[in-house]
TrEMBL record:
Species of origin: Alteraurantiacibacter buctensis
Name this protein carries in UniProt: HEAT repeat domain-containing protein
Segments crossing the lipid bilayer: 6-28
Gene3D superfamilies named in the record: Leucine-rich Repeat Variant
Domain of life: Bacteria
Pfam families: HEAT_2
Length: 343
């Protein structure tokens, strides 16, 4: 009987504990539902304030300020021009800059990055706060802040950013080209100056060159040519230089491209052949035809494409190579002619 009583008591205890836990879960669910309801109401009210142009009658609570910060980030991504400008003015009046400034000290790197990107949209105080993220311990946050400042024409000088971000040394992201392009749109001369500044890493100069090439700033071609020659000992960087030369399409790059066609590096030869075709260097057609017999398929392909893009003279070179060239050249030339339907 004693054992049965003990079992009964244990069962009651467990049932009571289960009932208590269920009650807590229900209360938590009710509390969460109320909180979400309050948040939805606050989001609706604050959205109206941000979009309609009238400020709240009372000072925002901490919770409201945080929601206003989130809304500003979301809405600013959807707006451009004067609409975004008015939104940011209303957000600043509601204290959103201070909210985002606090987030720059978050332990979560993504939160710091998002805050820096949003602050860069605000003139004055906001952009000054965003600039402090250039000293963030996380490299992605530093680069993101630089990109955001550049996109809003508020970035420091290219030389300063190159040193601050460690471009070419600790920072090798391909996003650096996007950064340089944004900087070049604001001040092409400052980006161009990087090409001749002492102490600037070769990777930085290559990124600047690519950015200038994407912008088709043809007056920079002599400097780009100089860089191509100066970096002749670094085959890892040279292909990017030749791609930039091809994007510019300026015949002033002829000598550098001709040198690249004879490079011992197949990557450089391929990039130089591609540049020759894009620039339209018809006096190099014979050299391109010789590359149809190159040991590397990628070089043969780029040479063939360059010849195909060089008008009737280039197509004649392909036809001759297909008919009487070495076996490798015949195969490459026939493949290009068939692919381009030039047979």
């Amino acid at each position: 009987m004693t054992s049965l009583l003990a079992l009964w008591n244990v069962s009651l205890t467990l049932s009571g504990m289960a009932l208590f836990a269920l009650t807590l879960l229900l209360l938590a669910r009710i509390h969460e539902a109320r909180r979400l309801g309050r948040d939805r109401t606050m989001r609706s009210e604050l959205t109206a304030h941000l979009l309609a142009g009238h400020a709240p009658t009372r000072k925002l609570t901490r919770a409201q300020s945080e929601i206003a910060g989130d809304l500003t980030i979301e809405l600013a991504e959807l707006m451009r021009g004067s609409d975004r400008m008015h939104l940011l003015e209303r957000a600043a009046a509601m204290g959103v800059i201070a909210v985002l400034g606090r987030r720059l000290h978050s332990r979560v790197a993504q939160d710091r990055l998002t805050a820096a990107e949003a602050l860069a949209m605000f003139d004055g105080e906001g952009q000054a706060l965003a600039a402090t993220a250039l000293d963030d311990p996380n490299r992605d946050v530093r680069l993101g802040a630089a990109l955001a400042l550049a996109q809003n024409n508020a970035a420091p000088s290219p030389a300063f950013l190159a040193q601050k971000l460690g471009i070419g040394t600790t920072e090798r992201s391909l996003l650096v080209v996007s950064l340089m392009r944004d900087l070049a749109e604001a001040d092409a001369n400052a980006v161009q100056a990087l090409l001749t500044l002492p102490g600037i890493a070769g990777e930085t100069k290559v990124a600047a060159t690519e950015a200038l090439g994407l912008g088709r700033l043809v007056e920079t071609t002599p400097l780009v040519t100089w860089i191509a020659e100066a970096l002749s000992g670094d085959p890892a960087l040279q292909p990017r230089i030749y791609r930039a030369l091809g994007q510019m399409g300026h015949p002033g790059a002829r000598d550098a491209v001709a040198a690249g066609l004879s490079s011992p590096s197949w990557e450089v030869r391929a990039a130089a052949a591609d540049a020759a075709g894009k620039i339209g260097l018809t006096d190099l057609l014979g050299r391109l035809s010789d590359l149809l017999d190159d040991d590397y398929w990628w070089v043969r392909l780029r040479a063939g494409e360059a010849l195909a893009a060089s008008g009737a003279a280039g197509r004649d070179q392909l036809v001759r190579a297909a008919a009487s060239g070495p076996a490798t050249a015949r195969h490459a030339a026939n493949a290009i002619l068939a692919e381009r339907q030039l047979l």
